[in-house]
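#random but structural
TW: two for the price of one
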Amino acid sequence: MELERLGVKLHIFSSKYPTDAVSHEKVKVVNAQVTYLPEELGAEKLRILKAFFSVLVKYPVGTLSTFGHELKIKIFKANSKSLKRFFQSCCIIEQLEDIKHIHAHFITVPTRLVSLVYKITGISYSISTHAKDLYFEDRMNASNIKRRIRASRFVIANSKKSASDIKTSLSKIYATDIHTVYNGLDLSMFKFREKEPENPVILGVGRLEEKKGFACLIDACKILADRGISFRCKIVGDGSLKELLSDLIKKNKLSDIVELIESLPQHELVELYNESMIFSLPCVVTENGDRDVLPNVVKEAMAIGLPVVTTSIPAMDELVMDGKSGILVAERDSLALSDALQKLIDDPRLRKSLALEGRKVIEDKFNTENNVLKLKNILSEIIAEKAIVSQRSDEAKSFLEEGI
C-alpha cells in the first residue's frame, strides 16, 4: 500500500490462494493486480500449457535449458515439485509485460520462483527475508539458499541481526548487497492511548506455536495467581498448540483467569490492546531454530502505549531496550517473567515511562512511511542501473546453474 502511495506500480503474484479465516481490512484498498499461480498442475492444464508455449516462443534458449535442468532434478533427485515451480514461473513470465524487476518475500518458494524467472528471462530480482525462512533448520546456510542470495541484486533483512547473519553465511567474495529495512507500522492505525485501563489485564497475541512462548506465559500466570495477585490474561490466536495450552490452563486451575481467544480482525485487536494494561510475548528459539524476529504485535502494543514484557532472543534488543522501552527476560524463564509482570502491575509510574519510550521507539525506527521510502529508493536505484545488472548477469546465472 505504501509503495503504491509513493507511485510504484505493482503486480502481485501469489503461489497460494488465501485460506485465512480473518483477513486484514487494508487488503481491500490494494490497487495492484493480483495473480494467483496454479497450485495443482493437473487442475489448470490449459493455463499452464499456454504459459509454457508463450514463454518458449519469447525466450527459447532460457526456457529449454531451465526446463531440462528442472527435469533432471525431478528424475535424479526425486523432487516432485521442481516441474511445478518451473511451470509456475512460466505463468509469472507470461504476465510480466513492462515489469523491470521482481521482489520476492521469503527466501524459500517465492525466491525459488523468481530465480527461475531470472534464469529464463534475465529480469533481476531481490529478496525480503523474515524469520522462519532464514532460521528454521538453519536454512540460510543451505547451499541452494546461498545460491539464490548470490544471484539476487540485493537482500532486505528485517533486523540488523539477520543482516549480519546473512553476511556471515556468505563467502566474502560474493558481494550481494544486504540492507536492513525494519517492518514498520501505519501509525494512523495505532494511536497512542491517553490513559490506561484500571483493571490489570495482561495481553498476548500470536499464533499458538512453540516459538511464541505462551506455555511460559501460562506458567507465569500460575505463579502470579499463587502469589495472590489479582489480574486477567487474554491470549489471542490460533495454531497447533491450542489444545495443549487449553489443557495447561485447566491443569493449573486458571480457567477463571486465563482466556484463549480466536484470531481477531485488526480493528477488534486494536480495541483489545486499548482494554489491556500490559502486553507480553515471551518468545523462544525452538530446537529446530524457528523463532520470531521483531514481531509486529510487540510493535503494535508499544505504538498504542502498552508496556511490554518479552524475551531477550536474538534481535529483540533492536526493538526493546531493557528497562527503558520495555522489559526483557530470559526465554523459558517463567519465574523471571512473572516477576516482571508483577513489577508492572504494581508500578504505574514504570508502566507510564515504558509506554512513552516505547511509542518513541516505534515512531523513530518502525514507521512504515520512512521504512518503505527506504525500500522504494533502493528499488529505484536498481531499476536505474540496468547496465550494472547486465554486467553481472552471467556471473549471477552461473550460481543458479548448480541448482536453485
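TW: number two ↓
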Amino acid sequence: GSGTRFVMEKFIDENSLSVRKKLELTSNEAVKQAVIAGLGSSIMPLIGIRNELANGQLRIIKVKGLPLRSTWRLIWLKDKKPSPAAAAFREYILENRQAIIREQFGWIDPFLS
C-alpha cells in the first residue's frame, strides 16, 4: 500500500541508494509476479510473499537496514459503544497478542537469518 511505498522511498533516500529504473504497479500481486518473471527486485511486506518464499519462487536479498518494521494498531470509534462481538474481539486481541504474533508471524524468522 501507500504506507509501504512511503517507508520504502524514505529508506532509499536515507541510505542514498540509487534506483536505475522504476516500474510502478497497482498491487502487491502484480509486483510479486513481475519479480518472479525476472523484471527486477522489490521491497515488499514479508506477509505478502510467504508462499513464494516457502516454495522457492522468491528469496530475500540481505540489505543492511532491512527488513523495515512496522506497527499495526487496533482502532475503534471513540464515541461509539462496540457490539458484544467487537468488544470480545478487542479483548481477545489484547489478551493474546503475543501468541497471535508468534503463531501468525513466527514463520518469518528463518527467512531472516
